[in-house]
Automatic annotation (TrEMBL):
Keywords: NAD, Oxidoreductase. It is an enzyme of class 1 (oxidoreductase). The keyword Transport does not apply. GO terms for molecular function: methylmalonate-semialdehyde dehydrogenase (acylating, NAD) activity. Residues 13-477 form the Aldehyde dehydrogenase domain. GO terms for biological process: L-valine catabolic process; thymine catabolic process. It comes from Chitinimonas arctica. Belongs to the aldehyde dehydrogenase family. It comes from the Bacteria. Its EC number is 1.2.1.27. This is methylmalonate-semialdehyde dehydrogenase (CoA acylating).
Length: 498
């Protein structure tokens, strides 16, 4: 009998009463791994009610004790790293090495959450006026929610609930219905770490669950990572209902390659960033801008891409696993076809590969286009597959202008050995996250994820200092204390403190 994915409500893993269920499939084999419920509104209400009931006691829990819970959680994640990675690979498709990286980058945020004592400190100014002190304190909002995508089923939930909960909030997580098993393991580990019942709750579902979260009056803030269409909907609907919303959306990331760059290192970085995780990363380099003589590198890029091994993610030596599902496969193949029709030169065609032992897998091999123009669909749209567009320009200034003309602003990278060029690039580029000889510049958790422009809605990004501001509200206190013997002065009807 196929296993069912449970809900976590008020500290208990419970079976959903949903009438609609979807299958969780291994994208390499199409094996049905589990059935996940599309939760009815009543179950989401129960999860929010549990979070609301748990909030007063959790808010009153000391910062030190909240921090200790996440110290225990990081230890449990390390202990169960291989189980998490294996589950992730089987339900999402990425290689085991990449799955370990998925878990590890989330683990870093859990470790950072343990520093909440310094992260959540307020401000104090003594004697701002005659005997008056002013101080600001950061307090939790209440019930918060997170909606996460399929491509990082460990890392992105770990971006959200640890930082929300360690700052004193309670949380309702809705992971992707396409790979919910990994998030449920994390939820179980969080319970084992000592997170009290109701502080973390997990529900499942599609559009109806998303709308229920956006509309629920007891949810104060929503964190979202995913597609532009869904994220824009969440931001608008949640904001209209008076919630704080941070939404990290799609991308079209460019790598700019100067001819003075270390060629071998640069090509390795490009091919890994373009085709790793089958291109299913919002930080993938999907456009390479070859500057000047670097345009001669096309054949070398193609040759290096051909060395990558396509296979099921759990197989040893695999470089690229399958896409998440058949719909994603069909969309990527359709966009490749459009690229050909619109006049781009198909340097390497990854469609319909033969993967021994996995004839039902959702595979697309590395695909490379040259001669790509901004009006083409393969450039305008986020393909979210192993498709790389090559663009040629004459100068760094042209490259910067080309990147800045794209509406997205998630990430970009420059490859060069020139400090002056790097300084110019990082100053003039209008993109939130910049790598210098670093292909995927996702910052460590001491800093915040800072995508910009069409890649982000909301002022504050995930993790780091920004997310502490997102999950807390500032309360400013102005206080004056009098000695018992003090002589009362005259009535003051002005606004001045004196």
């Amino acid at each position: 009998m196929t296993a069912t994915v449970k809900l976590l409500i008020a500290g208990k893993f419970v079976e959903s009463a949903a009438s609609e269920w979807r299958e969780v499939r291994n994208p390499a084999t199409q094996e049905v791994l589990a059935r996940v419920p599309m939760c009815p509104a009543a179950e989401i209400d129960q999860a929010v009610a549990a979070a609301k009931a748990a909030f007063p006691a959790w808010r009153a829990t000391s910062i030190a004790e909240r921090s200790r819970v996440f110290m225990r959680l990081q230890a449990l994640i390390r202990e169960h790293m291989e189980m998490l990675a294996s589950t992730l690979t089987h339900e999402q498709g990425k290689t085991l090495a990449d799955a370990r990286g998925d878990v590890f980058r989330g683990l870093e945020v859990v470790e950072h959450a343990c520093s909440v004592g310094s992260l959540q400190m307020g401000e104090f100014a003594e004697n701002v006026a005659g005997g008056v002190d002013t101080y600001a304190i950061r307090q939790p909002l209440g019930v918060c929610a997170g909606i996460t995508p399929f491509n990082f089923p460990a890392m992105i939930p770990l971006w959200m609930f640890p930082m929300a909960c360690v700052t004193g909030n309670t949380f309702v997580l809705k992971p992707s219905e396409q790979d919910p098993m990994t998030p449920m393991i994390l939820a179980e580990l969080a319970q084992r770490a000592g997170l009290p019942p109701g502080v973390l709750n997990v529900v499942h579902g599609g559009a109806e669950a998303v709308n229920a979260i956006c509309d629920h009056p007891d949810i104060k803030a929503i964190s979202f990572v995913g597609s532009v269409g869904v994220g824009t909907h969440v931001y608008r609907r949640g904001s209209e209902n008076g919630k704080r919303v941070q939404a990290m959306l799609g991308a079209k990331n460019h790598g700019v390659f100067l001819p003075d760059a270390n060629k071998e290192q640069s090509l390795n970085a490009l091919v890994g960033a373009a085709f790793g995780a089958a291109g299913q990363r919002c930080m993938a380099i999907s456009v390479a801008v070859l500057v000047g003589q670097a345009r001669e590198w096309t054949a070398d890029i193609v040759a290096k891409a051909k060395t990558l091994k396509l296979n099921a993610g759990h197989e040893p030596g695999t470089d690229i696993g399958p896409l998440i599902n058949g719909q994603a496969l069909a969309r990527v193949e359709q966009l490749i076809g459009q690229g050909v029709e619109e006049g781009a030169k198909l340097e390497l065609d990854g469609r319909k590969p033969q993967v021994a032992g996995y004839p039902q897998g959702n595979f697309v091999g590395p695909t490379i286009f040259s001669g790509v123009k901004p009006a083409m669909h393969i450039y305008r749209e986020e393909v979210f597959g192993p498709v790389l567009c090559l663009v040629e320009v004459d100068t760094l200034a042209e490259a910067i202008a080309f990147v800045n003309a794209n509406p997205y602003g998630n990430g970009t990278a420059l490859f060069t050995q020139s400090g002056a060029a790097a300084r110019t690039f990082q100053h003039d580029i209008d993109v939130g996250q910049v790598g210098i000889n670093v292909p995927i510049p996702v910052p460590v958790p001491f800093f915040s994820f800072t995508g910009s422009r069409a890649s982000k809605l909301g002022d504050l990004g995930p993790y780091g200092k920004e997310v502490v501001r997102f999950y807390t509200q500032t309360k400013t206190v102005t206080a004056r204390w009098f000695d018992d013997e003090a002589v009362a002065g005259a009535v003051n009807t002005t606004i001045a403190l004196r």
